[in-house]
Specification:
Length: 276
């Protein structure tokens, strides 16, 4: 098992203004597995990712990465874990995460230089990862602004992979891409999963991860309301929010999941949001 999260709680704010961002969340990721993390804006997806990266303080719970309990890690220990490739993160917007004045090959090589590798070895590894994410060698010296959105996203993936991490968190990696580039990114994820890399694939759309994930976790208002194999969650969703996601996804919608049902589910969720 590469990731184990147990009874995780995260609160934001101070004292009386403290509010829960995550409440009692537990999930696991096996080696070579893709787990889809689904939820609407504000459901806690990004908070969960930041917790796994050691970027937010935990109110309660436990996180274990590749057998290492990181729950009480200090900043220096987290930096060491990330630098040696324990866990890496791919941002939603690669144009903002890539330095506009740094070439493609130097962006990919940067994590290796931070780790302490020589410049010659780092550049050699960076160029090797260009082909691994299906980018031409001629793009190595270009700047991010000279690339398409799909190419920039693949550079971001290569930069995350170059340290050979055990776990990669993908934050909405295909939401801003056209269909052709979306397919390419998903195919790269499949290939890397077959090579033993584990992924947490964050999205607001169940349909976008149904074809790539082994299991799916559904977050709603900071709580994990559904977690299991994709087929089981899609065919037999237990929570109203999950049923709404299924009925709203064109590729997952069934004949019985019509407009009236979706409106009824929205009404139920709206009622749940109202204070008692």
């Amino acid at each position: 098992m590469i990731l184990e999260i147990s009874d995780l709680e995260v609160h934001y704010g101070q004292r009386r203004r403290r509010r829960p961002a995550l409440s009692g969340v537990s999930l696991t990721v096996e080696r070579g597995e893709v787990v889809g993390l689904i939820g609407e804006t504000g459901s806690g997806k990004s908070t969960l990712a930041r917790a796994v990266l050691g970027l937010v303080s935990l109110s309660a719970g436990r996180i274990v990465i590749d057998g290492e309990d990181v729950t009480a890690h200090r900043a220096r220990q987290w930096r060491s874990l990330r630098r040696r490739g324990g866990v890496q993160y791919v941002f939603q917007d690669p144009l903002r995460s890539l330095d506009p004045d740094v070439s493609v090959v130097d962006s990919i090589a940067e994590p290796l230089l931070v780790r302490g590798d020589s410049r010659a070895e780092a550049e050699k590894q960076a160029r090797a990862y260009l082909s691994r994410v299906r980018l031409d060698e001629e793009l190595a010296t270009r700047l991010p602004g000279e690339l398409s959105g799909g190419q920039r996203q693949r550079v971001a993936v290569a930069r995350a992979l170059v340290t050979e991490p055990q776990l990669v968190i993908l934050d909405e990696p295909v939401s801003a891409l056209d269909s052709a580039n979306r397919v390419q990114i998903l195919e790269i994820v499949k290939e890397l999963r077959a090579a033993g890399v584990s992924f947490v694939f964050i999205s607001h759309d169940l349909g976008s991860v149904a074809g790539i994930a082994d299991r799916v976790a559904v977050l709603y208002r900071g709580e994990l309301v559904e977690f299991g194999p994709v087929r089981d969650v899609v065919k037999n969703p237990a929570h109203a929010y999950t049923r709404l996601l299924v009925s709203s996804a064109p590729t997952l919608r069934t004949a019985s999941a019509g407009r009236a049902e979706r409106e009824a589910l929205r009404s139920l969720l709206t009622a749940e949001r109202k204070p008692t």
